[in-house]
Amino acid sequence: MSQWTPELRAQRVDAILSQAPVLPVLSIANVDDAVPLARALVDGGLPVLEVTLRTAVAVEAIARIAREVPGAVVGAGTIRTGAELAAVADAGGVFAISPGATEALYDAAQAATIPWIPAIATASELMRGLEHGHRRFKFFPAESSGGIGALKGFAGPFAEARFCPTGGIDAAKAPGYFVQPNVVTVGGSWMVPSDALASRDWPRIATLAREAAALRG
């Protein structure tokens, strides 16, 4: 898709992110963990999965999840270059998220076949994203960038923008974000604690996913 309109971008992002109240943010170091981890999260009611490109096996993990986990809606996080954006699409990822935004990424996103979600932390960054035709953003790092108060502040002058706040949010803080009208979903990793992942305790992760999915009510 060579030409994205602001409306089409927003529709595509909303169709993905609105499928679950929480977006698990995953760092997968062992590619063999990808499929059972994804299955546990999907079974727990969290089908939309962000696999961060922080490990050498991340793109392969996305490809395996896309092929082998029915019901999973898998994309990538920590996108920093146009080449990474293209690689994720080729692997079967259906969305991509960055921890920030650059002019090069905005250009690459215009030619991408999957929706890309830039991250913002300030009003100026948000205005730049809006100028580029984006209406949906990751708010990152959420807690250290003003949290709920910042989102309330954005709501007035930037009523067309909606967000996926990520960074420093846990099960206790998430409900406060859910009630903000400009929040589509909340990103976090609390449902995949490092000890559970290390021990491959998939039932525990599925239980934590169910608890996370129920937080929004």
Describe this structure in words.
- The protein has 217 residues and is an alpha/beta fold.
- The chain has a single domain, classed as Aldolase class I (TIM Barrel, Alpha-Beta Barrel).
- Helix content is 42%, strand content 15%.
- It has ten helices and nine strands.
- The strands form three sheets. It has a four-stranded parallel sheet. Strands 6-7-8 form a three-stranded parallel sheet. The protein has a two-stranded parallel ribbon with strand order 4-5.
- β2, α3 and β3 form a beta-alpha-beta unit.
- The longest helix is centred in the first third of the chain and has 12 residues, at 6-17.
- The radius of gyration is 16 Å and the shape is globular.
- The mean pLDDT is 97.
What's the count of strands? 9
Radius of gyration: 16 Å
Spatial ordering of strands, largest sheet: 3-2-1-9
Structural class call reads alpha/beta
| Number of continuous helical runs | 10
Briefly characterize the structure.
This protein has a single domain (6-209), classed as Aldolase class I (TIM Barrel), CATH 3.20.20. 42% of the residues lie in helices and 15% in strands.
Topology overview:
Layout: H1 6-17, E1 22-26, H2 34-43, E2 48-52, H3 58-68, E3 73-77, H4 82-91, E4 96-97, H5 103-111, E5 116-117, E6 119-120, H6 123-131, E7 136-139, H7 147-155, E8 162-165, H8 174-178, E9 186-188, H9 194-198, H10 202-213
Parallel strand pairs: 1-2, 1-9, 2-3, 4-5, 6-7, 7-8
Helix pairs in contact: 2-10
